Amino acid sequence: MIRKPAVSGQFYPSDKRDLEATIDGFKPKRNNKISAKGIILPHAGYAYSGRVAVETISRVLAKKKLILLGPNHTGLGEKFSLWGKGKWETPLASINIDEELSKRILGTGSLIAEDKLAHQHEHSLEVQLPILYRFFGQFSFVPIACQQASLANYRKVAAQICQAIKAQEDEVLFIASTDLTHYEPDITARVKDRTVIEAIINLDEEELLNKVKAKGITMCGVAPVAILLCCLKAVGAKKAEVCLYQTSGDAGGDKTSVVGYVGMIIK
DSSP characters for 205-257? Predict the structure, then answer.
């Protein structure tokens, strides 16, 4: 039940020291940490979205139990796939699955299923772990890969998760992984991404889905973000704010075809 890294050496350095240096190179000089109920992070290669992810995580007080929601880019496995046992290896450390919380989530509903296939080649959650470990130290987590579905099913998935965490003594940090507009000119991407960010600030999963559909926004993580918003409102979240927004053009210089990245904190 050990998951080996799928994109180490591609999306981020495979050497421990190089990886630590890369993450540390994105650290802001000063940051006042706040208590968050949830965060939204991008998942491209660190050269492109690493600064957004690091600056966001660096502002959040560490928690020891995390629920990670990410898109399923491969289409393999169950529609909502949870890896429920064992550990995930990273170049920095092996991170334990929270098996007790995973079991409770699987036992409180039928939409989330235990499945490893969806996670084997998926990068959207893997790339978060080294950064989270660098700032939080050891933690346990529940990874859930999400395919697109209906708003009703997103709300049911969130209800399944929230029912399970009622018995949880330690507060859980929810994390959703998404990139925003893909492969459009920088100026166009920024306009489209602004509408997505507005919906998230409004904590409105229905508005999010409607804008993504109406404007043809190629946001890969609409499912995990919608589920995140449902979960966070259920646990009392009141406010969302942008930590950092960039496009790949900010890092690579090419503004003709970019991908949008946002880091957000919800409290």
Answer: HHHHHHHHHHTT---TTHHHHHHHHHHHHHTT---EEEEEEEEHHHHH---SS
